[in-house]
């Protein structure tokens, strides 16, 4: 094995990737657009990847529901599995009343799942930074908006349906009256921390996963260029990347699932505030 | 002590919750497996709840990681 050759050419090959594990989260404008420098409405790589995600889900579900058959083919059964999965989740947590929330939960799940999944695609080598693979859900503002959306829906729907009765959410039935001054603040704090924990859970999972992937990739580069025996054992972190990647696929699905099911549980509170 | 050094020590301390997360995940996996081995027919019913608990426990460690990142990069 001619390591001299590797040492000579590898640094050049690695240069586009070697700007550190946090570089992948950088937001790069593609079409700059700002008003007086105060409001920035640029079309960025984040916007591009959200558009790709929405386009992918549109394409997939259009293909899946085109020419429906009694005995489904490949695409149609994949679509049916996704539908049945979320429908079952909504039915289990909210019962028949929850059916009205099915489109919301299904959209939320599909969007988050595809954001997580498409963010795992490798970038095209040598492409400009604005077209590198970008995980939309690795930015806390995106996940926070999604979390505020679901908790906001809980509050608005609860207030419309139950009026002031919705406030019974903060005073669980069956609690003795003298305990109320303690329970009510705890319930309020726990309610207020819901959007924060929803948002941070998804964001932190995505951020940590992608940082770990890039750190392992950095190990490979560093070991390979170190020369001698170290170049040979660079195969170890390379297999490590494969394993972390598998875990990331699980996490991508799991976090979308957890976000959706917690939304269902919170919506159940809006349907029946006095638990 | 240098402020920069204190920052790194703080970031290191901030990820100590991983101790608890490791314990928790270990207990959870162990309990899940012992439940699944004792009553294999109930496994499919356990899996869903198990994965929710896995994600919720894991998230605690990641909250710690976010705090460490905040200390390091802000």
UniProtKB/TrEMBL annotation, chain B:
<keyword id="KW-0138">CF(0)</keyword>
<comment type="function">
    <text>F(1)F(0) ATP synthase produces ATP from ADP in the presence of a proton or sodium gradient. F-type ATPases consist of two structural domains, F(1) containing the extramembraneous catalytic core and F(0) containing the membrane proton channel, linked together by a central stalk and a peripheral stalk. During catalysis, ATP synthesis in the catalytic domain of F(1) is coupled via a rotary mechanism of the central stalk subunits to proton translocation.</text>
</comment>
<dbReference type="InterPro" id="IPR005953">
    <property type="entry name" value="ATP_synth_csu_bac/chlpt"/>
</dbReference>
<keyword id="KW-0446">Lipid-binding</keyword>
<keyword id="KW-0375">Hydrogen ion transport</keyword>
<feature type="domain" description="V-ATPase proteolipid subunit C-like">
    <location>
        <begin position="9"/>
        <end position="71"/>
    </location>
</feature>
<dbReference type="GO" id="GO:0005886">
    <property type="term" value="C:plasma membrane"/>
</dbReference>
<dbReference type="Pfam" id="PF00137">
    <property type="entry name" value="ATP-synt_C"/>
</dbReference>
<feature type="site" description="Reversibly protonated during proton transport">
    <location>
        <position position="58"/>
    </location>
</feature>
<dbReference type="InterPro" id="IPR000454">
    <property type="entry name" value="ATP_synth_F0_csu"/>
</dbReference>
<keyword id="KW-0812">Transmembrane</keyword>
<keyword id="KW-0066">ATP synthesis</keyword>
<feature type="transmembrane region" description="Helical">
    <location>
        <begin position="12"/>
        <end position="30"/>
    </location>
</feature>
<dbReference type="InterPro" id="IPR035921">
    <property type="entry name" value="F/V-ATP_Csub_sf"/>
</dbReference>
<keyword id="KW-1003">Cell membrane</keyword>
<dbReference type="InterPro" id="IPR038662">
    <property type="entry name" value="ATP_synth_F0_csu_sf"/>
</dbReference>
<keyword id="KW-1133">Transmembrane helix</keyword>
<dbReference type="InterPro" id="IPR002379">
    <property type="entry name" value="ATPase_proteolipid_c-like_dom"/>
</dbReference>
<dbReference type="GO" id="GO:0008289">
    <property type="term" value="F:lipid binding"/>
</dbReference>
<dbReference type="GO" id="GO:0033177">
    <property type="term" value="C:proton-transporting two-sector ATPase complex, proton-transporting domain"/>
</dbReference>
<comment type="function">
    <text>Key component of the F(0) channel; it plays a direct role in translocation across the membrane. A homomeric c-ring of between 10-14 subunits forms the central stalk rotor element with the F(1) delta and epsilon subunits.</text>
</comment>
<dbReference type="GO" id="GO:0046933">
    <property type="term" value="F:proton-transporting ATP synthase activity, rotational mechanism"/>
</dbReference>
<keyword id="KW-0813">Transport</keyword>
<dbReference type="GO" id="GO:0045259">
    <property type="term" value="C:proton-transporting ATP synthase complex"/>
</dbReference>
<feature type="transmembrane region" description="Helical">
    <location>
        <begin position="50"/>
        <end position="73"/>
    </location>
</feature>
<keyword id="KW-0472">Membrane</keyword>
<protein>
    <recommendedName>
        <fullName>ATP synthase subunit c</fullName>
    </recommendedName>
</protein>
<comment type="similarity">
    <text>Belongs to the ATPase C chain family.</text>
</comment>
<keyword id="KW-0406">Ion transport</keyword>
């Amino acid at each position: 094995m001619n390591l001299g050759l590797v040492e000579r050419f590898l640094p050049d090959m690695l240069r586009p990737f070697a700007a550190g594990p946090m570089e992948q989260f950088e937001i790069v404008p593609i079409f700059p657009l700002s008003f007086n420098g105060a409001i920035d409405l640029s079309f960025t790589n984040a916007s591009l990847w959200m558009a790709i995600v929405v386009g992918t889900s549109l394409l997939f579900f259009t293909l899946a529901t085109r020419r429906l058959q009694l005995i489904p083919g490949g695409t149609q059964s994949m679509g049916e599995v996704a539908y049945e999965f979320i429908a079952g989740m909504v039915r289990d947590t909210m019962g028949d009343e929850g059916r009205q929330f099915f489109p919301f939960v299904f959209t939320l799940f599909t969007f988050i799942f595809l954001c997580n999944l498409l963010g795992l695609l490798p970038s095209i080598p040598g492409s400009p930074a604005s077209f590198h693979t970008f995980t939309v859900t690795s930015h806390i503002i995106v996940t926070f908006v999604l979390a505020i959306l679901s908790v906001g829906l809980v509050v608005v729907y609860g207030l419309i349906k139950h009026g002031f009765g919705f406030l019974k959410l903060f005073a669980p039935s069956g609690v003795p009256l003298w305990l109320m001054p303690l329970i009510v603040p705890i319930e309020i704090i726990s309610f207020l921390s819901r959007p924060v924990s929803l948002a941070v859970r998804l964001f932190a999972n995505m951020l940590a996963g992608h940082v770990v992937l890039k750190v392992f990739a950095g190990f490979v580069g560093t070991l390979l260029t170190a020369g001698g025996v170290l170049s040979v054992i660079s195969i170890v972190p390379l297999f490590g990347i494969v394993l972390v990647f598998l875990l990331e696929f699980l996490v991508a699905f799991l976090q979308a699932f957890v976000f959706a099911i917690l939304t269902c549980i919170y919506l159940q509170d809006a349907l029946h505030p006095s638990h | 002590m240098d402020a920069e050094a204190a920052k790194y020590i703080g970031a290191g301390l901030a990820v100590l919750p991983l101790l608890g997360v490791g314990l928790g995940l270990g207990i959870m996996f162990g309990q899940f497996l012992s439940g699944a081995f004792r009553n294999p027919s109930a496994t499919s019913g356990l899996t869903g709840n198990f994965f929710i608990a896995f994600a919720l426990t894991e998230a605690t460690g990641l909250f710690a990681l976010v705090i460490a990142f905040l200390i390091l990069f802000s």
